[in-house]
Amino acid sequence: AQYKMNNSDKNVKKLREIYPITTNNSPNLKLYIDGDIKGSSVGYKKIEYKFSKDKGQETTLRDYLNFGPSEGENVE
Prior knowledge:
Number of strands: 4
Number of helices: 1
Strand content: 35-45%
Strand order of the largest sheet: 1-2-3-4
Number of domains: 1
Shape: elongated
Order of helices and strands: EHEEE
Distance between the termini: 29 Å
């Protein structure tokens, strides 16, 4: 899934505070998900914020999330 983000989004603002992002472009958020995402989904998911892709120079932040069962749930 891909979403066009806004620079006013709180997550985008936080990324700009933490990392030296030099472009003013709004990012695209891409979610790389295997299978269905449900309340019981487990495993790794990749997220990517792509701020720019200009002539050989790309500004992208990637991270991985590890979803596991909540405490107290039965795991079979």
